């Protein structure tokens, strides 16, 4: 029963990995260590196969989520004829390509490198996007490990200058999960007190309650020294224990020394060098310990996880039901939603909407207010004779008569010239009226959201598209409306109908005004002639 907990957590991990969300913090073992600490060797020893990329500098550049799945040869849950795994002893699957089966471990390594370059680029940068890998084998214990980039301080080559901070943030994101177990890797041939992995673990787990320390390279310590004090917990206080292991050397890898042979050599070394501690150290003991710790940790976290998932299930079930029935005719639904939006828009304009505001004017009522109050009052405020003085009138009359006397008749040209200047003042408030009406017609779109709340929530992208189309349509009509207004004003300027009843009615007043103005004009002419004769 306990063994089935880890695969269940793995399934949840796959779901969250596929959706790109981390709503629930799942139990997992996070592997932390500096570069060249033997981190990859520890993981590969537990897997029993060499599948991780190796090399100089940062090799692991994004989180590798390694799900180790115990799969006996007679298993019927994972093995099937569909994926051609009935006869395979062990195989690997990637979450990003679940339909492809890998039985060649070299190709697994190549795929990790290819996907890493795709995610994090080829300039040795890092990324927070994980690569999920499932390893099925009858020789494994159920286990989930997250291999993180090695801690580094100095950028190499074309690495970003802030590579250290990027890696620190990535590690902090994973180990700060309270449901994670921290596997802190430290080499025995360096000062454990200054171990970077232990420092990271202490920052988020000061009591060491969820930290397991692994001391690598026990065989590379200086002559005459040993790691007894470290392995007994006298140097590093962690509650989950301290386990020492021996890694395959680079020469072992070059010589293709198998992991099984390396484990046998490790066992022999521990019995020879640390006889009393040998049973509680080594890669085999580490794998069993991690399996036990992870299952116990899952059992502890399970009530909270179950409650959280049940709450999420109820929420999303309710959300799913709110979306309505399945759609079989998309065209009909599309037409229905567009029609409903159109009707909502028209009803808001006409004032027949069931969701009209009572706190402010909106829709057709506001447009009516803009026409009759804002625009109308602006027109009423324009003074017909504003800016026209007596001298302007006299000058216009004299310019219109040329060398002829203006004593007998008032030329209409002068009148039209003055009137056109005043008519032109109607253009600015008219164009401003266009802007105000356009703004209100855009506001009506938002008001329509109240009529289509259900559809807007269910078909969010369709709603955005409808709004975008309507906004563009309204914007496209501004130019033609502006041209129409300019044409109307231009028409009024093109011909002044002096036979209009309004002019005829005031004709006597205009003539009497001109009679008063013209004598002054004649006197001014005489004065100018006298001044000219004197100067001669």
UniProtKB/TrEMBL annotation:
Record's GO cellular component terms: cytosol; microtubule; mitochondrial outer membrane
Top EC class, one word: hydrolase
**Compartmental location:** Cytoplasm, Cytosol; Mitochondrion outer membrane
* Main localization, broad class: cytoplasm
Xref: SUPFAM superfamilies:
P-loop containing nucleoside triphosphate hydrolases (SSF52540)
Query: What does the record give as the reaction this protein catalyses?
Result: GTP + H2O = GDP + phosphate + H(+)
Q: Which residues form the signal peptide?
A: none
Q: Which InterPro entries match?
A: Dynamin, Dynamin_GTPase, Dynamin_GTPase_CS, Dynamin_N, Dynamin_stalk, G_DYNAMIN_dom, P-loop_NTPase
Query: Mind telling me which PROSITE patterns this protein's record contains?
Result: G_DYNAMIN_1, G_DYNAMIN_2
Q: What keywords would UniProt list here?
A: Cytoplasm, GTP-binding, Hydrolase, Lipid-binding, Membrane, Mitochondrion, Mitochondrion outer membrane, Nucleotide-binding
Q: What Gene Ontology biological process does one annotation of this record name?
A: intracellular distribution of mitochondria
The Dynamin-type G domain, residue ranges: 23-303
One example of the protein's molecular function in GO is: microtubule binding
Task: Quote the Gene3D superfamilies the UniProt record gives.
Answer: Dynamin, middle domain, P-loop containing nucleotide triphosphate hydrolases
What EC number is given for this enzyme? 3.6.5.5
> What's the family?
Belongs to the TRAFAC class dynamin-like GTPase superfamily. Dynamin/Fzo/YdjA family.
Name the UniProt record assigns to this protein: dynamin GTPase
Protein species of origin = Lepeophtheirus salmonis
């Amino acid at each position: 029963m306990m063994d089935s907990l880890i695969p269940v957590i793995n399934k949840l991990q796959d779901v969250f990995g596929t959706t790109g969300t981390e709503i629930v913090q799942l139990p997992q073992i996070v592997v932390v260590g500096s570069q060249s600490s033997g981190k990859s060797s520890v993981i590969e020893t537990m897997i029993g196969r060499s599948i991780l990329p190796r090399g100089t500098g940062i090799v692991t550049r994004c989180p590798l989520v390694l799900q180790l799945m115990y799969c006996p040869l007679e298993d019927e849950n994972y093995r099937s004829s569909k994926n051609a795994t009935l006869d395979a002893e062990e195989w690997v699957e990637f979450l990003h390509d679940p339909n492809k089966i890998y039985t060649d471990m070299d190709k697994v390594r190549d795929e990790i490198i290819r996907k890493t370059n795709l995610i994090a680029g080829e300039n040795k940068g890092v990324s927070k996007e994980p690569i999920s890998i499932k390893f099925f084998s009858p020789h494994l214990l159920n286990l989930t490990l997250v291999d993180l980039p090695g801690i580094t301080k100095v950028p190499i080559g074309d690495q970003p200058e802030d590579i250290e901070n990027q890696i620190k943030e990535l590690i902090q994101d994973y180990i700060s999960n309270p449901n994670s177990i921290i596997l802190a890797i430290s080499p025995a041939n360096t000062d454990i007190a200054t171990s970077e992995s232990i420092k990271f673990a202490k920052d988020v787990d000061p009591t060491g309650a969820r930290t397991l320390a692994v001391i690598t390279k026990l065989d590379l310590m200086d002559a005459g020294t040993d790691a007894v004090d470290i392995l007994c917990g006298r140097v590093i206080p962690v509650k989950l224990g301290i386990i020492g292991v021996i890694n395959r050397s680079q020469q072992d890898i070059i010589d293709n020394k198998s992991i099984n042979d390396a484990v046998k050599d490790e066992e022999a070394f521990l019995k020879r060098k640390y006889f009393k501690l040998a049973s509680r150290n080594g890669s085999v003991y580490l794998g069993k310990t991690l399996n036990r710790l992870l299952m116990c940790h899952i059992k502890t976290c399970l009530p909270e996880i179950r409650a959280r998932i049940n709450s999420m299930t109820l929420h999303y079930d309710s959300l799913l039901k709110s979306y309505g029935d399945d759609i079989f005719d998309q065209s009909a639904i599309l037409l229905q939603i567009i029609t409903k939006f159109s009707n909502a828009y028209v009803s808001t304009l006409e004032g027949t909407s069931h969701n009209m505001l009572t706190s402010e004017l909106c829709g057709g009522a506001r447009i009516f207010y803009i026409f009759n109050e804002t625009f109308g009052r602006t027109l009423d405020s324009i003074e017909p004779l504003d800016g026209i003085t007596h001298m302007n009138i006299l000058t216009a009359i004299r310019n219109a008569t040329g060398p002829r006397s203006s004593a007998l008749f008032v030329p209409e040209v002068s009148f039209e010239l003055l009137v056109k200047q005043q008519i032109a003042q109607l253009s600015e408030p008219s164009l401003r009226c266009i802007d105000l009406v356009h703004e209100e017609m855009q506001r009506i779109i938002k008001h329509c959201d109240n009529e289509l709340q259900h559809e807007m929530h269910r078909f969010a992208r369709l709603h955005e598209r409808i709004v975008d189309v309507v906004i563009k349509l309204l914007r496209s009509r501004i130019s033609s409306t502006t041209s129409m207004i300019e044409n109307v004003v231009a028409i009024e300027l093109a011909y002044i109908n002096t036979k209009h009843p309004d002019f005829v009615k005031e004709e006597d007043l205009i003539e009497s005004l001109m009679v008063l103005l013209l004598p002054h004009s004649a006197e001014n002419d005489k004065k100018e002639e006298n001044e000219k004769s004197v100067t001669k």
